[in-house]
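Re: that chain you flagged

S.,

Sorry for the slow reply, it's been a week of failed gels. I finally had a moment to sit down with the sequence you sent. For the record, here it is as I used it:
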Amino acid sequence: MWRAITRLSDVLNKVVLRFLTVLLMLMVIVINVQVFCRYVMNASLSWSEEVARYMFVWIVLLGASIGIKEWFHISVTFLVDRFPSKIRFAIDAVIKIMIAAFSVVLFYASCILVKAVSAQISAALGLPVPILYLCMPITSFLIFLHIVSSLADQLILKGKNEHNSEAEIIPTA
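Prediction finished late last night. Pasting the structure tokens below so you have them in one place:
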């Protein structure tokens, strides 16, 4: 079961990474078209700012889930590095449990928020506002899945696939 969760986490992470790549390219195109239209054609697009903002929010939030999966977020390990490895192992597990708990709370709160804005329509695009807010429950689910996968690797597989706290900043392919 734990291997299936880890596999699902890996597959969803790859899908999200590709989705974010396409979304970032589209955002750059939309912003460049807006700049071209504004300064060359002297006519602004009414929808471009809202589209770029929505894309940016999705990129940031889904990118946070990738950061959790790849363990790229900044952490201060000055004090923790001084402990013996068993205590570091326990501290790492507690941190992951706290992140999982936060993601559950975020999922619950964001579902309430999506329901609360379900009748609203965006100003420029005329799209339902929940489309923007839907990225929050999706991100919190992905964070929970990635943390559970990492915690399973750490606790059940005895750290065989545990991340390295001194990992290089350059991501691997």
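What I noticed first: The helical segments are 2-39, 48-70, 85-116, 130-133, 135-155.

Talk soon,
D.
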